[in-house]
Design goal:
single chain, alpha+beta, eight-stranded mixed beta sheet
Amino acid sequence: MINLAELRLYYFEPNTELVHIFPVGIGRIGRDTPEMSTKISQKRPQPTWTPPQSIRKEYLAKGIELPPVVPAGPDNPLGEYALRLAYGSGEYLIHGTNKDFGIGLRVSAGCIRMEPKDIEWLFAQVERGTPVTIVDEPIKVSLEPDRSVFLEAHEPLTRSDGTKKDLEVPLELSWWLEASNFSDVKARAAILAQNGVPVEVVAPRKAERL
């Protein structure tokens, strides 16, 4: 799962409770990475890059003429590994990079960019057909075993049309707080801060005496 708002990729290790989390780069404004439910359709070590006409035009406007196909190697922006997604016509990839920047930023043409060491590890874990879900969720909520509640809020992404998601206390959390007679003041403060830091909005419940 990839959460665009967090610029993070989550890999849920099968048959375990382990979750591996990696920073990613995503599509810049105007070339937004879309939300989707899809799967990995192809695994490509040492991939070549066939830049689409739109990308070639962008580079040409900067005085750079791209070849029809960029071979595998140090000059290939896809890095050493690429995972093609089945969404659309297969134009979106999860791939490495040959650059020393861009991870944790909105800089790509829509693909998901990972650090070389991270994509190498992920490439070895997944197979064709592995489900992939891409969401844009600025707010995450966790109900812990001790009944404490944490909320994490990120600044919403600006989309191509200039809009952002409006952030409010999630409806399910509002219902839970109301039913449990808890205030939503801390939750609203965390959402207003939008700093990406988990905040305890409900303290642990004390064990009841028998």
